[in-house]
Design brief:
This is LacI family transcriptional regulator. With about 325 residues, the chain is α/β, with parallel strands linked by helices. Helix content is about 45%, strand content about 15%.
């Protein structure tokens, strides 16, 4: 037979209301009483009805994780989001809440899903796993005062939005500096996105590193259309590039394939450095030289900051910078 609040109260020799206050961690109950009642709950195998408890608080007891529009195969297969979800789930479990995912293959449908989750009170708040210019989802969350934490730096309202991030401009700078230290002077920045804040920040970091060394900067090598891939060998030849800073690991593998197709060997002819240190970095040779951004820490901190908002422990914007480190492997050589 399942133990009830009354059973716990009887054995602990307290009132049922005291047991309820212990369950809700009410400050009016002493630490000694809480410890004693909780031990009895454990001994009796009693588990609080979290759903019923949160109905009283008008809480959904769930967090929403909003993935970026999955409008490309790279995004759809990016392990970064699975790592992030795993960290969010683990941290949410510590708060005794669950997670739900909002995803779609375009921004309009994604916004509809988020609005539905919010208005139907399916979640108490959201973790937004991306940051883009003119993003309708982040605008909706902000305008409707929905609790949310952003993974990444906001495109605007930095002082008002709670976010956790790496220093992506510093990442771009240090990746480029690593190539410069290896003797490279003609370096390109390559990306398959051009509206994400992360693109601007890492490209600015690339520009900063090159300018500080009085080296030529180049327009970003953005691969958005099929014709961009066709022009790749012409761009390499025209710039005399010996190295690429690539937006992330998955696209770096695509660039290595493209270079190989056109007769460039990595790293002998073209060095490559990227970001994220995902599982793809060591799936095929040459292993990728990449910068680890600690996505698990981003997910953990993002969840903690969202719970602080939901529990009304924090009301102003805050930036948390997660450390990163370079992982040297096989795609960069000295010249």
């Amino acid at each position: 037979m399942t133990a009830t609040v009354k059973d716990v109260a009887k054995k602990a020799k307290v009132s049922p209301s005291t047991v309820s206050r212990v369950i809700n961690d009410h400050p009016s109950i002493s630490a000694e009483t809480k410890q004693r009642v909780r031990k009895i709950m454990d001994d009796m195998g009693y588990f609080p009805n979290v759903t019923a408890r949160n109905l009283g608080k008008q809480r959904a007891n769930s967090l929403g994780v909003i993935l970026p529009p999955l409008d490309s195969r790279e995004r759809l297969g990016n392990p970064l989001y699975l790592e992030l979800l795993n960290a969010v789930n683990a941290t949410a479990a510590e708060f005794q809440v669950t997670t739900a995912v909002a995803s779609a293959d375009n921004s309009a449908t994604l916004l509809e899903n988020v609005i539905r989750m919010h208005r139907q009170k399916q979640v108490d708040g959201f973790i937004l796993a991306y940051s883009e210019k003119d993003d309708p989802v982040s605008e909706y969350l902000f305008q409707n005062q929905v609790p949310f934490t952003l993974i990444g730096r906001p495109a605007k309202r930095e002082a008002d939005i709670i976010y956790v991030d790496n220093d992506n401009q510093l990442l771009g700078k240090q990746a480029t500096e690593h190539l410069i230290e290896k003797g490279h002077k003609n370096i390109l920045f390559a990306s398959n996105v051009n509206q994400e804040v992360i693109f601007f920040e890492r490209y600015f970091g690339y520009q900063e590193a090159m300018m500080l060394q009085s080296l030529p900067t180049h327009q970003p090598l953005t691969m958005l259309q099929p014709e961009d891939y066709v022009q790749f060998p012409e761009v390499i030849k025209a710039t005399g590039a010996t190295a690429l800073v690539v937006i992330d690991d998955i696209f770096a593998l695509r660039m290595i394939q493209l270079a190989t197709l056109h007769g460039y060997k990595v790293p002998d002819d073209l060095s490559v450095i990227s970001f994220n240190n995902s599982i793809f970095a060591t799936l095929v040779h040459p292993y990728l030289t990449t910068i680890d951004i600690d996505i698990s820490d981003l997910g953990r901190l993002g969840t903690q900051k969202l719970m602080e908002q939901i529990e009304q422990k924090q009301s102003s914007g805050v930036q948390l910078v997660v450390p990163h480190h370079l992982v040297q492997r096989e795609t960069v050589r000295s010249i």
